[in-house]
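Below sits my pick:
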Amino acid sequence: MSVLVAFSVTPIGKGEEVGEYVAEAIRVVRASGLPNRTDSMFTTIEGENWEQVMAVVHAAVAAVEAKCDRVSLVLKADIRTGEPGRMAEKVASIERHLA
């Protein structure tokens, strides 16, 4: 099985500059050892099962929550049987079509 989760954790009530709070979540994701990618809107992680990936999301939210009273979470998941490596393969497929 392969589980891809794109998520965004945002502290509420901390103003417009929230990079230091978001960095706490990203630190958790990177320490997990799961394949991951962060862009300007979301962090995507890939794991072998739902429990593995959601444990990382939960820990990332908890890291932000430890520094503020309110947190917003946006999450999108793609769960399917198959080989790992889909996070990179999906992008590679688009690039092949653009070439």
Q: What stands out?
A: The radius of gyration is 14 Å. Residues 2-98 form a domain with the Alpha-Beta Plaits fold (CATH 3.30.70.930).
